[in-house]
Specification:
The structure holds 2 protein chains of 2 kinds. By secondary structure, chain A is α/β, with parallel strands linked by helices. Helices cover 34% and strands 23% of the residues of chain A. Chain A is built from 13 helices and 17 strands. In chain A, strand 1, helix 1 and strand 2 form a beta-alpha-beta unit. Chain A starts with a strand and ends in a 13-residue tail after the last helix. Chain B is of the alpha/beta class. Helices cover 40% and strands 21% of the residues of chain B. In chain B, a hairpin with a 2-residue loop joins strand 6 and strand 7. In chain B, helix 1 packs across helix 4, helix 2 packs parallel to helix 3 and helix 7 runs parallel beside helix 8. Classes of the chains: A alpha/beta, B alpha/beta. Chains A and B meet through strand 2, helix 3 and helix 9 of A and helix 5 and helix 7 of B.
Chain lengths: 329, 265
Amino acid sequence: MINTLYIEKDVSDHPRVQSILKRFNKAEVIECDHYSELFNRKAQNFRFQKQNPALILAKKHKQFVLPAPDAYSIGGNKNYYFSHMMNCIYDCRYCFLQGMYRSAHYVLFVNYEDFSDDIIRSASESNHDDCYYFSGYDCDSLALEPITGFVDFILPIFEKNPRLWLELRTKSTQIRDLLNRPALSNCVVAFSLSPDNIVDALEAKTPSLNKRIDAIKKLQEKGWPIGLRFDPLIYHDDFQKNYAGLFAEVFDVLDLQQLHSVSLGNFRMPEKFFRNMVKLYPREKMFSAAMQANDGMVSYAEEKEKAMLQFCERTLLEYIPEDKYFPCQ
Amino acid sequence: MIYIVCALHCEAKPLIDNYKLSLEQDAVFPVFSNEQIKVIVAGIGKISTAAAMAYLYARNQELPYCAWLNVGIAGHKRLPLGSLVNVNKISDDSMNWYPVRQENSKQLGVELITVDAPVECYESEALVDMEASAFMATALRFSPVELLQVLKVISDNEENHIDKINKKQVQQLIEKNLGQIRETINWLQMQVDLFAEIYVDSELYQQCVNQWHFSHYQQKQLKRLLQRWQALNENPQFFQVQALSNAKQVLSFVENEVNQMPVEY
């Protein structure tokens, strides 16, 4: 799976690096000065790199925890995000990472302690309000957990601080470690879900919808609060039938009582990222539908976007109470 | 097209013979080519390398998506003479470059340091050459890193000093590794073909710009509209637009078609 490891000189002796090296003992190891030498260089092709990405082990030096964008909220006023990793093992065609980053290599920052310190620091500035922390902004929160052990490291911080909330955003079924520990009522495991036909067409390398639903059921049985993220909604001619089918399938098997939150969001992308994505995939069907650009953001043409959001919202609210619904703006 | 850059003629000779390359006339640097490959003999050192590569690119700049391969000899402290290595990191002063590793490659990956003059002793575990950093810096101006490779054959080590090697031996060292060099050339060709398949303009685009006059801005519009048309309708044909009278009509027709196409998954 990973044939090449790049390791920053400064972290080559770090215990987490040593442990990852043992796991990938057949991988070629190449020392680098700084991850940006590989990750930020010009003249590289994200699409080609995605076929055989390397893992870069690095140290993050600043900006561990950042205020979340306004649209990120599942009930709290103080919202932050952090990224212990950049890039994802999945290859979702709508993902903004392919438009934002030049490289498809995975970067893992191994100085986890700096993230936990900054979580505690940011929480201490919040005047006793509940604080929400979103993981999985620049990566999938669980997909590489067996290698990184980051969630295992960070959960005790939240266990000790019940007013701090954590969202793990994922499409992964790597839930074994979560199932093997007591559930935390302030940790929401949020699954991104799409209809089967969209998973097949646009979410390469991800677990099937059925497998994700199965993982959600198991986590619910163990008492983990669950979030459902129908985001982005993907426009297609049969969207009504397919999204109605998706909601029916999901809510048929899930326990609504243990559902923490549900969100819906349209496809929207900064224009610059969208241009990069079109350059990478010029004949991609998804990017060929009628789109519009407004205030620097690309989205589906207004009437299509409206029709899709209204339909999905109406259908969704047949299953869940409004207080669990958080539209993404 | 694959561009192969060698410093010396004796490094290039086995490739010229194996691929039956012909000398191009009127070239400032010696260039040997067939339809797939061009080998340039650049001379020793970074300036010669950069100059030769820029010359080769400028001479053939109409060719889209070219791969670049640096083949040559290098010294290493311990590696046995004649072994071929695939360079995975190139350092020169404070700069580093990282050629892409081929998936499933069995070639040994080794770091390389480019120096300005031949070295007397081998201090680090890295290869030493006099061209690779210039090769990378120049090639990256013309092609993405996915289309570059650096292969070196060990010509000298602590026990076999560079002074002991002659041109004939260099030629033999390269010849001995032709099988592996060919593998890399084949891999690069596959990469080039993939790039071309994805990014080269469609035949329909060429037919349109040959038939009507499109301004520069209109060409960009046409290119994107045709990409969208092809994504939504697998095989749009020239006859669908052939009867139209001008570029404006073509753009309007294709845009209308695209916006009415169903989006199905």
